[in-house]
Backbone:
């Protein structure tokens, strides 16, 4: 009996979540990084409420970008090293869908905690409640985009020696639109302005990434595996 | 315009001539370096082929 | 998808080598002539700007360089895609040889933009939409070059680069739009004068001449780079060995 693609998709997610649970300490690192980086800003500038509040959306989002990028390491590496990835790509199921499954489980254990940590960091940066709400909304739309686009970069740099540094150079420019629209949405909500436009744009980026990124990432993985 | 006007560019000489200067140097170098690169590649390949020939002569059974 | 047979003929590295050898002198001469025409009209025919005086003449190198930076990226991504889909080595070659040239034009656009900014706005750098987008474009070029440089196998390097270039070319409009939108949000007193006002014909002609000359430069340059590199990549084939022998016999490398 050959399993259907749908059940393969679900099975892969369950497997990845189980593996992540077993190595749950490793998941903490990018999150701690997220918190520490935001903490550095008041220390490096000033603890003054007004200044921090102005910087808050951008600082928290940049920290989220960097943390998301660091977390990419756990996306394909383990499976690449023990040969599972190769097996996955050889299967009869659509590679892009299997990659999407992996990205989804990765987002569940890296992106979602970032969203949940946002109120704490909003507190550190004196972000009012309205801003925190918008911040979490943008993170909800944005972190999947970061995982999806990051997966392409990870696929390209998987087998390389100092792939980590190269990964940042490749992926951070692609993150810029997400940063611009998310930070501006939070700013706008603080000023009582409309944020629908920004959210729609983020939604559009998300839709684009969900459809195209898995294909690009799967292609990149096939190239790296050879 | 006169020669002096040309060089002074209305007081903006530094900006105008640095711009054109940097562009000329960079584009010029990128135009010329492939010429040398190709010659170098040919030289290297020539040596490499000679080496391969010698190896083949030393081991006529393999090829 | 199969390509028509005729394209197969042009896409062979060997034909590339001989054809480019014939094309390059024409392209180089064309570049030289249009460059002289552009510079002459730019400096001696176009009058000084009533607002910016002589400093605006930087435009004749800045704007065409910026145009080239974007044009080359698209050409690079297209040839990389062609190389990836139809496995044509010459297309791969054009993509990787274009990247440094594109990066150079981007760098020139940034530097000349900065040097133009100082007399115009009083500052060497300003986060306006055009310059910021150019900076991000430079990162995209450098990422492509770095990725290809870090993969040893040339075929995999070409394929990986192609994926990156295609992803990049899809993202460029998104990034440009985002940066422009961001820049309008934070518009200070510095309205971007780099976005052209209505331009006088005496200024338009040198601009177009310079644009054409840069295009010819790019074509000549990418073919010259390609000629050398193709010998290296195809070094195990008969035709390369013949060429190396021929060049050696004709008394030194030409």
Residues:
């Amino acid at each position: 009996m050959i399993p259907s693609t749908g059940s393969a998709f679900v099975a892969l997610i369950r497997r990845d979540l189980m593996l992540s649970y077993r190595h749950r300490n490793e998941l903490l690192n990018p999150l701690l990084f997220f918190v520490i980086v935001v903490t550095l800003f008041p220390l490096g500038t000033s603890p003054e409420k007004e200044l921090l509040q102005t910087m808050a959306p951008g600082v928290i989002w940049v920290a989220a970008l960097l943390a998301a990028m660091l977390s990419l390491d756990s996306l394909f590496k383990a499976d690449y090293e023990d040969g599972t990835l190769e097996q996955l790509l050889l299967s009869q199921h659509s590679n892009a869908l299997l990659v999407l499954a992996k990205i989804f489980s990765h987002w569940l254990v890296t992106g979602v905690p970032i969203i949940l940590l946002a109120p704490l960091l909003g507190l550190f940066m004196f972000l009012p409640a309205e801003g925190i709400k918008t911040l979490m909304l943008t993170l909800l739309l944005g972190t999947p985009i970061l995982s999806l686009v990051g997966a392409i970069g990870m696929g390209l740099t998987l087998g390389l020696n100092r792939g980590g540094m190269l990964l940042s150079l490749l992926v951070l420019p692609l993150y810029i639109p997400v940063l611009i629209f998310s930070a501006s949405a939070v700013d706008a909500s603080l000023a009582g302005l409309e944020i629908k436009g920004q959210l729609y744009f983020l939604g559009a980026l998300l839709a684009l990434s969900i459809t195209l990124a898995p294909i690009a990432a799967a292609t990149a993985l096939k190239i790296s595996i050879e | 315009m006169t020669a002096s006007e040309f060089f002074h560019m209305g007081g903006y000489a530094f900006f105008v001539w640095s711009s054109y200067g940097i562009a000329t140097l960079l584009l010029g170098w990128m135009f010329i370096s492939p010429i040398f690169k190709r010659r170098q590649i040919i030289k290297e390949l020539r040596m490499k082929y000679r080496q391969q020939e010698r190896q083949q002569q030393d081991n006529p059974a393999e090829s | 998808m199969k390509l028509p047979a005729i394209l197969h003929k042009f896409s062979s590295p060997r034909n590339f080598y001989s054809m480019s050898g014939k094309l390059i002198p024409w392209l180089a001469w064309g570049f030289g002539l249009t460059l002289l025409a552009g510079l002459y009209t730019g400096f001696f025919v176009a009058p000084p700007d009533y607002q910016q005086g002589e400093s605006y003449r930087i435009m004749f190198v800045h704007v065409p360089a910026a145009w080239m930076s974007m044009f080359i990226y698209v050409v690079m991504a297209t040839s990389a895609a062609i190389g990836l889909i139809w496995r044509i080595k010459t297309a791969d070659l054009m993509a990787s040889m274009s990247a440094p040239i594109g990066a150079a034009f981007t760098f020139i656009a940034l530097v000349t933009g900065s040097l133009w900014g100082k007399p115009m706005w009083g500052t060497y750098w300003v986060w306006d939409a055009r310059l910021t987008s150019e900076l991000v474009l430079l990162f995209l070029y450098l990422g492509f070059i770095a990725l290809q440089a870090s993969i040893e196998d040339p075929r995999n390097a070409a394929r990986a680069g192609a994926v990156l270039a295609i992803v990049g070319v899809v993202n460029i409009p998104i990034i440009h739009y985002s940066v422009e939108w961001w820049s309008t949000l934070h518009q200070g007193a510095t309205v971007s004068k780099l976005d052209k006002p209505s331009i006088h014909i005496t200024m338009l002609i040198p601009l177009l001449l310079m644009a054409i000359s840069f295009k010819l430069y790019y074509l000549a340059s990418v073919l010259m780079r390609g000629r050398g590199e193709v010998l290296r990549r195809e070094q195990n084939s008969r035709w390369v060995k013949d060429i190396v022998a021929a060049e050696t016999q004709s008394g030194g490398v030409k």
